[in-house]
Every structure is written in C-alpha cells, then in structure tokens.
User: Which sequence fits this backbone?
C-alpha cells in the first residue's frame, strides 16, 4: 500500500497522490502547466475505447494523457478503492 | 471574506534560497546598468532563473544582455544543485502551493462527488463499446447534412448565377454597346468563374456551422480522446484529427488549424496529410462525373473518393513516420476535456461567417485571376477560333501524353487539370468552358428584372423545402424524397460522355482527389513550414496521384471493365 507505483498502471476509480514526476524537461514543464505537480491528488476516470489514452480528474478538471506519458508520473495509491 | 487591500503589491515568496538568487540578479541589473525596459525587474529575474526560452532570446538582444544571462545561468545551476530540481519546476510547485492554499481558504466543495451532466454524457460518448460507433455516427450525420442538405441550395445558387445574373450582365453590356470580346470576357470568364465559386457557399456555411457546434460544445476534444490511439497508428496526434476534419471543408484553414498541435513534427505531418482529405472544392468534380457516368450509384462513387483519400493519408502517414518524420520526444499528449457547454449561437454564427468569408475572399482573388488568365489563354493568339489552337490548347496538348496510361490523354483534360492547380473546383468550370463555352447559349425567354427577382425568391423557398425533406429523410424509416433522383442530363455530362468511359472517369476522379494541392494550400504550407515542405507536398502528392490513377485504370482494364 505504501509502495509508489506508476500512474498508468492504475485502474479506473482508483485515487492516488503524485509523488514524483520524471521525463524530459519539456514534458515536465507541460505537466506543471497543466497542474500535474507533486502532492496533487489524481483520480483515474476511464480509458478511451481503444484502451489509450486515459482520462484523469485532477484539480477539478478532466485531463487525458497517453499511457506512455502517464508512466513518467510516480504516485502513491490511496488505501482501498475510492470512496467517491 | 474581507476586502483585499488593493494598494499593497502582492508578492509570492519562493523561499529563502530562491529569494536570495532573485535579489542577486536584481542587484546585477543595477551593477551592470542593465535596463530592463518594459519588464518589471523581479518578474524578469524570475523568468531568467526559470530559463524561459522566449525571454532569454529577448534579453540576449538587449544591451549587456549576455552578461545578465551569464549571471542568471550561474544562479540557476546553484539553485538546481541545492534544491535538487529544475528551477521552473520549483516555481511551479510554489505557485500551485499558494493557489491550493487560497482555494482551501475560500472554496467549499460539496463532499459527495456529484455525477455531473458532463460525466453522464462522457459515460456514453467515450464508452468502451459505444464511443467509436457514436463518433463515426456523428461524422456520418454531419457529412450527410453538409453534402445532401446543401445540394438544393447549391442548385439554387447555380441557377441564379447562370440565369438572371448572366442575363443582367449581358443586357447591361448590350446597352453599353460593349465589343463582343469584352462581353465574352465578362460573361464567360468573370461571371462564370466567380459563379463557380459562390456555388460552394451554401455547403461551406453548413459545414462550418457543424464544426463550430462540435468545437464549442466540447465534443471536439472527446473526439481527439477517442481517436488518439487510432491516429497514432498513422503517426499522428489525437488533435491532428481536428485539422483533418477541417480538411474536408478546405485545406487552407485546416493547415492553419494545425497550430493547436504543440509538437512541430506532429504539426508538419498533419499538414502534409491534410490535403489528402477530400476538400469541398473537389466535390463538384465528383458530382459532375458521378452523375454523368454512374447515375444512381454516384453517391457510392463519391463516398469511395472520400474513403480513398483517408486510406492514402493513412499509408502516407505510415511511410513518413518511418522515413523523414520520425516521432520525437515533443509529441506528448496532454489534452484537457472541458465540461460540455451549450454553444452560443452568436459564436457559432461568427465562426461560420468568418471561415466562409475567408474562402470567398480567396475565391475573389485567386480564382477570379485564374478565370481571367484562362480566358485570355483560350482566346490568344488574337482571332483564334478553335480552342485547340489557342495557347492554352497547345500547352495542354503538350502535357497530355503524361496522362495516356491513365486513360485520359485528350488536351481538354490536361488543360482542366492544369487549371485545377489554381483551385480544384476549376477543373469543372474549365471543362464546361472548353466543351460548352463555344456553343451558342440556348435561347431563353427574355424576362424582366422583377420576374427574375420573384423567381430567385421562389427558388429559395423551394430549395429550403427540399432540403428540409432531405433532412428528415436522414432519420431512419422516413422517406420523403423519391429514390430516383431526377438525373436530367446536363449539356456538360453529355459532352463528357463523348470523351470518357466510366473507367477513365473513375481514374480521373482518383487523380483529381490526390494530385498537387491547390495554390492556396501550398501557400499556407509554405508560410507555416517553409518552401521545401511546400515543394515536398506538391511532388509527393502528384506522384502518388499518378500511380493511384494508373492502378485504377490499368487494373480496371485487366478486370475487363474498360
């Protein structure tokens, strides 16, 4: 439960806290612009019909990321399934 | 909530280590006597520490800029080694930390996550199984609406230009005792040329109306979400999808629409593939040939053209992705899915109007110019009677052998394709000028202006009723429009049947679909990506077009269709 994991490995309905952001500088800057920063809570919403990209809920808005990019985001899964 | 004192300047504290470096750079401004110009000093110091590329370039060109950048670079390295992250990431963290604090103090969210209307809609339109069918259904309905519903209005516009307007000009010129060559230039060259363009206006208005609806409602980004995986097979981005759809209207705005794509490589590839989406200017070519050669199956043939354009774009995308445009790190997919909104009618109408106006303006210059040049080339040397002996005819004859393996090596077709480079829809107007231009117009009953105006009004009402019927006809189970369309043979389709077989007509349509983008499109590519990419675009499409038309014609002959 306390092991950090990668964002793209989570299932819809799960909630997690961002612990680390990797990847190239340009990508990390883009993430920061969109509010994807350390400490933020992110909810996995749904996969696109073809499995990729994935829709997330963060900072009160909806955002889609490809798995490839989401893999750069390290998260800590919240205990159990979300209570939402 | 207390009133905020407005006289106090707000300043976000970035932490002691960071603040020390900011102070150091601001001191350096004084020391080196660097004039920050219109930029606030603290703001500029932070931007330099963040390494903002745009600001660095500007400062570089300012007096003593190099020295300041040097100082900022040292501070930046220092901060990075002390705090363990890039400076711009640190500033982002601080800003978001502050924002979160403000939000926590001022905003109360309902505890239960409410399933909003947006979520409910997204549960359906991005559903695992329903998402793609819904997407394709939306595209199909828009396509049908644009093509079918606009067609009565298209006929109406056409009948006004070729009827009353041409007659009014003729009457006016007769009154002014204009010489016959001026009469011919204005009526056969200018009015016919401009008329050929105005005919698209009804269809374009409807197309842009629906594109604006999609965009303003928020569905466009869902389409990008749903389609991204698919677009990636071709090496594109989900957002490339929007310019591609616009390409069905006109490639010029579509190429400018690629500006929404962040990665240069993705943008360029999108722009190279957009002209393969069959634009509305190519539609009249399909319609004229479709009705002349394929009768009741014309609709299928037109559909096949659109599908072929998409197929070739997919193949070309795969080839480019593996050769000259390999994916790079900049092609990240970070897409916001905004809440659905009811589109504001005013914004939709403005969108519709501006895009259509752009097309008409292009028509007013490029197409008008080309119509006049065409008329001149057709009528020189002075006194030429047979068009084949005109400059235009001679040039067209000289290139027509290139088209022999494709099944259409007559000079008229060569000429029409050459003029199609100016704008694709001119292919039809050139053919009608060449095939019919010389003939005496049928004698019509002289009408008064009042009668003409009444006729125009009645025509509009009839067109509206007809398109309303077609609109309802799209609904399953409703059939208001008779199956057999009154496919009365126009003079042009009779003339075309003398020069083409159904097979060579099909090869010609394939060629027109794929060959060199029009002048305006190449101009847009040149402006956005440079001359060499515009040349690349022109060459690769023409080669692909020739090969594809060859396959259709020779393949068809082998199958015994010719």
Assistant:
């Amino acid at each position: 439960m306390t092991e950090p994991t990668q964002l793209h490995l989570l299932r819809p309905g799960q909630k997690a806290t961002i612990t680390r952001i990797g990847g190239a500088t340009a990508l990390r800057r883009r993430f920061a612009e969109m509010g994807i920063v350390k400490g933020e809570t992110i909810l996995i919403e749904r996969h696109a019909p073809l499995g990729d990209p994935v829709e997330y809920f963060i900072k009160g808005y909806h955002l889609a990321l490809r798995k490839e990019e989401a893999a750069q985001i390290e998260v800590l899964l919240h205990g159990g399934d979300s209570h939402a | 909530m207390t009133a905020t004192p407005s006289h106090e300047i707000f300043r976000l504290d970035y932490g002691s280590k960071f603040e020390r470096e900011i102070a150091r750079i601001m001191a350096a401004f004084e020391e080196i006597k660097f004039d920050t110009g219109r930029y606030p000093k603290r703001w500029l110091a932070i931007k330099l520490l963040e390494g903002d590329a745009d600001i660095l370039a500007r400062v570089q060109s300012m007096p003593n800029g190099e020295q300041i950048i040097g100082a900022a670079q040292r501070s930046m390295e220092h901060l990075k080694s002390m705090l363990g992250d890039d400076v711009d990431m640190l500033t982002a963290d601080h800003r978001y930390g502050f924002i979160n604090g403000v939000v926590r103090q001022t905003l109360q969210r309902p505890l239960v996550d409410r399933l909003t209307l947006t979520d409910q809609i997204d549960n359906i339109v991005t559903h695992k199984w329903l998402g793609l069918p819904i997407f394709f259904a939306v595209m199909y309905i828009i396509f049908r609406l644009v093509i079918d519903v606009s067609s009565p209005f298209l006929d109406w516009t056409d009948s006004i230009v070729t009827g009353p307007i041409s007659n009014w000009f003729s009457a006016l010129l007769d009154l002014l005792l204009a010489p016959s060559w001026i009469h011919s230039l204005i009526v056969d060259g200018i009015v016919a040329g401009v008329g050929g363009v105005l005919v698209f206006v009804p269809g374009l208005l409807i197309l842009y109306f629906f594109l604006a609806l999609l965009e303003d409602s928020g569905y466009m980004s869902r389409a990008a979400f749903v389609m991204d995986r698919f677009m990636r097979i071709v090496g594109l981005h989900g957002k490339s999808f929007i310019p591609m759809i616009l390409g069905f209207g006109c490639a010029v705005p579509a190429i400018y629409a690629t500006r929404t794509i962040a990665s240069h490589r993705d943008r360029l590839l999108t722009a190279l593939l957009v002209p393969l989406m069959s634009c509305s200017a190519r539609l009249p070519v399909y319609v004229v040939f479709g009705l002349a050669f394929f009768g009741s199956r014309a609709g299928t043939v037109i559909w096949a053209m659109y599908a072929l354009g998409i197929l070739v774009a997919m193949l070309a995308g795969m080839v480019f992705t593996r050769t000259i445009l390999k994916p790079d790190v900049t092609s990240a997919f970070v897409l916001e899915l905004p809440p659905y909104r009811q589109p504001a009618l005013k914004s939709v109408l403005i969108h519709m109007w501006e895009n259509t106006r752009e097309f008409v303006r292009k028509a007013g210059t490029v197409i008008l110019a080309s119509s006049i040049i065409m008329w001149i080339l057709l009528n020189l040397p002075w006194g030429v009677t047979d068009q084949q002996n005109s400059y235009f005819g001679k040039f067209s004859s000289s290139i027509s052998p290139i088209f022999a393996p494709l099944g259409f090596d007559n000079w008229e077709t060569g000429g029409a394709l050459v003029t199609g480079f100016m704008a694709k829809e001119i292919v039809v107007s050139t053919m009608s000028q060449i095939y019919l231009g010389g003939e005496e117009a049928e004698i019509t009953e002289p009408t008064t202006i009042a009668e003409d105006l009444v006729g125009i009004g009645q025509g509009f009402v009839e067109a509206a009723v007809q398109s309303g019927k077609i609109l309802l006809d799209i609904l399953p189970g409703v059939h208001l429009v008779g199956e057999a369309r009154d496919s009365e043979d126009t003079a042009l389709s009779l003339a075309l049947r003398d020069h083409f077989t159904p097979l060579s007509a099909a090869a010609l349509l394939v060629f027109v679909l794929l060959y060199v983008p029009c002048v305006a499109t190449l101009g847009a590519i040149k402006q956005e990506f440079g001359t060499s990419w515009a040349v690349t675009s022109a060459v690769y499409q023409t080669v692909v077009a020739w090969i594809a038309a060859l396959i259709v014609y020779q393949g068809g002959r082998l199958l015994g269709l010719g």
Remarks:
- Chain A is about 15% helix and 35% strand.
